[in-house]
Amino acid sequence: MGVDGRLRAVVTLAQAMAAAHTPRDAVRAAAHGARTAIDGSFAAISAWERERGRLRVLVNEGARRPGEEEFPEDESYPVHDFPEITEFLHERWAGGGGPHAWVESAGSGRPGRRGEALRRRRRGSCVVAPLVLSGRAWGELYVARDEGLPGFDGDDAEFAAVLAAVVAAGLAQNERLEEARRLAFTDPLTGLANRRAVDMRLDEALEQHRAAGAVVSLVVCDLNGLKRVNDTLGHATGDRLLERFGSVLSLCGAMLPGALVARLGGDEFCVVSVGPSADEVVRVAELVCERAGELELGEGVACGVASTGDDIGPLKSSRRLFRLADAAQYKAKAARSAKPVVAGRDTAVVRLADAARPATPAERRRFRGRG
Question: What integer is the mean pLDDT of 117-133?
């Protein structure tokens, strides 16, 4: 590949990483783009986990051998097994003078496990380039060629270092975008999802319900006694109550596979479940009420449940599911119920939610027992 071809390959790599929507997409695009650019048979991206002293493989791309998964759950290698790694993982790279890539071959007599790994996997040579983000060693780019193909040389090593710099820039950008996305859909106090994330999840869930009949359930919780805690013990203590209940809700919500646990705002929280039956969701809601009642602060929680697994009628949008769960929660609040109220099992709740005229704030307060 000539200079122009390599330049085009670098541009293609940068564009593919810029188009990635998730960290997984980004590392896959990085490995594929680098492998293609340098005419390799196989590529891997690994991250250095300092606290464990190991390189963890994030993606294996190209001609994989038995046992090599595209996205391995736990493929990792101790740093001390690769003496050359310590050279570029050392903090001296933070001082400037960028790291260099190097070439290994299956027939070389160099110490370390690179040659052994190449021979075991029937690969003839590899080029390894460190990935450095914000002046710190982050991991490595590894590209190999199969046995029988021309080996990598010094020019390939220099080009691999350029590719690694492009990959590192793309990973850094993706991390910043991922953090921005996380902040946009996360409640800053509790770390749970926020209302924006709930609305998106419910819209997707109802599409699944219409297409495949998936059971969609919504649990809405109102934390009792938060105002009293704020007024008597201060808002810092009230924030601790919110955080503690958020942890309770998160632990209980984890019993429903794939559930989204969120803080809607103020003292209101919710759980969105897709798949588990209405009975399973109600059991989890009962556990939430029980655990909330055991908290040192506050006065328990009022829970309302609405599920397509119950007789709640057709759902044209997520707004109706919210109205049903809200109405059930209002009734639980008014009755000071220690258990959740379930919309589809209480016809009065369904009638309230489907009333032609929305309840006024005063009516809602009276229904909640606050008027």
Answer: 91
